[in-house]
Amino acid sequence: MSPVADRLAELGVTLPAVAKPVAAYVPAVVTGNLVYTAGQLPFVDGALPATGKFGEALTAEDGPALARQCALNALAAVESVIGSLDRVTRIVKVVAFVASTPDFTAQPTVANGASVFLGEVFGDIGVHARSAVGVPSLPLDSPVEVELIVEFA
Question: 53-103: per-residue pLDDT in tens?
Fold first, then answer.
């Protein structure tokens, strides 16, 4: 196994198959030494484990696990275009879109699920810039969507 695969195993997770796009796009593209992922939903075995909005059907405490799953799916997309996550030299940026009611303001709490997970996987190179944005709805009524910008060698 590779160092990143070993670390994922230590965390009790397996890199999933790349999620099938729900529209006309690809899961990730490479330009120069950067990978940009499409927004990844928290699919588990092809299904969303939860739907709806934070502040309505979901609470802030429900969010980190869903954002973590999005980040895991995004790593699968990254690996699909660079061959190995061991080539990652930096997680540059994370963008989390959080479907939420107008009065819900804990988008950063939800997004932390992705950020903390990337730090657990990559250590210092997993520390990144981030945006956590509340939106009125997401595809398939997903509660969260995460995209990554990743540098690699």
Answer: 999 999 999 999 999 999 999 999 999 999 999 999 999 999 999 999 999
Residue range 97-117: average pLDDT? 98
Sheet holding 28-31, edge to edge: 28-31, 34-37, 144-152, 88-99, 129-135
Task: Please name the CATH architecture into which domain 3-11+34-152 falls.
Answer: 2-Layer Sandwich (3.30)
Predicted confidence at residue 22, as pLDDT, reads 85
Give one DSSP letter per residue of 69-114, joined into a string.
HHHHHHHHHHHHHHS-GGGEEEEEEEEEEEEB-TT---HHHHHHHH
Tokens standing for residue 128: 């990144």
Please provide the average confidence, as pLDDT, over all residues in the chain. Answer: 97
Residue 76 zone, left/alpha/beta (φ > 0; ψ -120 to 50; rest) = alpha
**Spatial distance between the Cα atoms of 150 and 132, rounded to a whole number of angstroms:** 17
Cα 153 to Cα 150: distance, rounded to the nearest angstrom: 10
Domain ranges of the chain: 3-11+34-152
What is the phi-psi region of residue 104: left when phi exceeds 0, alpha when psi lies from -120 to 50, beta otherwise? beta
